[in-house]
Amino acid sequence: MQRRHIIQWGAASLAAPAFMAKAQSFPGKPIKLIIAFPAGGPTDITMRSLADSASKILGQPVIVENKPGAGGTLPAQALQTAPADGYTVAQIPLGVFRLPYTTKINWDPVKDISYVLNVTGYAFGLVVPADSPFKTWADFVAWAKANPGKLSYGSTGTMTSPHLTMELIAQQLGLELLHVPYKGSADLMQSILGGQIMAAADSTGFAPQVEAGKLRVLNTWGAERLAKFPDAPTLKELGLDLVQNSPFGIGAPKGTPEAVVKRLHDAFKQAMEQESYRTALGRYDMVPMYMSTTAYQKFAQDTFTREKALVEKLGLAKPQ
Question: The whole model's pTM is what?
Answer without folding.
Answer: 0.82
